[in-house]
């Protein structure tokens, strides 16, 4: 029987809150992730743990019996993690990101809480391939959104974490903002704001351009995501971003239109393969524990 501490943490949060929504907020997870974890736990145990209606959640006798056992198991695991964390004076982890999000921050905060002696450094990345920064030793890891399946690359390990829908960022008076959603074909009539020509992130921009019919107009002037959103707000065109940008860029003049037929963006954690850092391994383990249902690993390509 394969149970994880994440199963038990989700279970205990629902027991305490008697609400899947409040349990998700407490754990900094989505309600669907909590529901998936509870359903997985129930399948593994072969029992029903909660009686759910549209208005309430109640514990079954099995949940009442499991609760003290689960608490002891989680407390014991926390003690193991605290022991493993230990003092790591001088250790540092340099984390690259195109933009932050609630889920990204929750991963870093959870790692920081159990490794307080590590110097966690967050750096915003430009629209260039993050793997270049990793291979040059400028970063230890990077959170990267991609639109295609991850492909092996020499010296790089990639971990799938969570998915997000895509939205179009445009000026608030753009005609597309009058619709509840847009299609990728609608982007043929606007200028797409992308990164500069040269060593940009082909995983993202090349896929977007390929999904727009014909030859879309491209303004390749933005050096990072914040610049791209600001350019969209001034009416220079539109830029396609993950939906977490709605939360990260709440500024006057910008609107976000859902793209109904766009592929999902997958947030991944990239690291150098065979990196010996305990602190980095802890960050990877924390990310995978918080997002276990979608996590997968693509190792480095072998010559």
From TrEMBL:
Annotated Pfam families: HTH_1 (PF00126), LysR_substrate (PF03466)
Keywords assigned: DNA-binding, Transcription, Transcription regulation
Signal peptide location: none
Start and end residues of each HTH lysR-type domain: 1-60
GO MF terms held by the record: DNA binding; DNA-binding transcription factor activity
InterPro entries cross-referenced by the UniProt entry: LysR_HTH_N (IPR000847), LysR_subst-bd (IPR005119), WH-like_DNA-bd_sf (IPR036388), WH_DNA-bd_sf (IPR036390)
Recorded family membership: Belongs to the LysR transcriptional regulatory family.
Record-given protein name: LysR family transcriptional regulator
Protein's organism: Nocardioides luti
Lineage of the species this protein comes from: Bacteria, Bacillati, Actinomycetota, Actinomycetes, Propionibacteriales
């Amino acid at each position: 029987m394969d149970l994880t501490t994440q199963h038990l943490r989700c279970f205990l949060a629902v027991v305490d809150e008697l609400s899947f929504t409040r349990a998700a907020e407490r754990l900094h997870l989505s309600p669907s992730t909590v529901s998936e974890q509870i359903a997985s736990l129930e399948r593994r145990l072969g029992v029903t743990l909660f009686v759910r209606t549209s208005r309430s959640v109640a514990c079954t006798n099995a949940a009442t019996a499991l609760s003290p056992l689960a608490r002891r198991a989680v407390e014991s695991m926390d003690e193991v993690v605290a022991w493993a964390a230990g003092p790591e004076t001088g250790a540092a982890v340099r984390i690259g990101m195109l933009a932050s999000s609630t889920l990204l921050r929750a991963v870093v905060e959870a790692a920081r809480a159990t490794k307080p002696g590590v110097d966690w450094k967050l750096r915003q990345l430009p629209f260039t391939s993050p793997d270049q920064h990793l291979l040059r030793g400028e970063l230890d890891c990077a959170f990267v959104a991609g639109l295609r399946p991850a492909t092996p690359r020499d010296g790089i390990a990639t971990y799938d974490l969570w998915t997000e829908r895509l939205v179009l960022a445009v000026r608030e008076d753009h005609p597309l903002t009058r619709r509840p959603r847009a299609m990728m074909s609608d982007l043929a009539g606007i200028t797409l704001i992308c990164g500069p020509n040269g060593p940009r992130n082909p995983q993202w921009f090349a896929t977007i351009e390929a999904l727009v019919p014909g030859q879309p107009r491209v303004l390749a002037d933005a050096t990072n995501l914040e610049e791209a959103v600001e350019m969209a707000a001034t009416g220079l065109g539109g830029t396609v971003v993950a939906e977490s940008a709605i939360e990260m860029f709440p500024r006057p003049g910008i609107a976000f239109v859902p793209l109904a037929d766009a592929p999902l963006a997958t947030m991944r954690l990239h690291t150098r393969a065979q990196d010996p850092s305990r602190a980095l391994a802890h960050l990877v383990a924390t990310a995978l524990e918080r997002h276990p249902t979608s996590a997968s690993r693509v190792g480095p390509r072998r010559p």
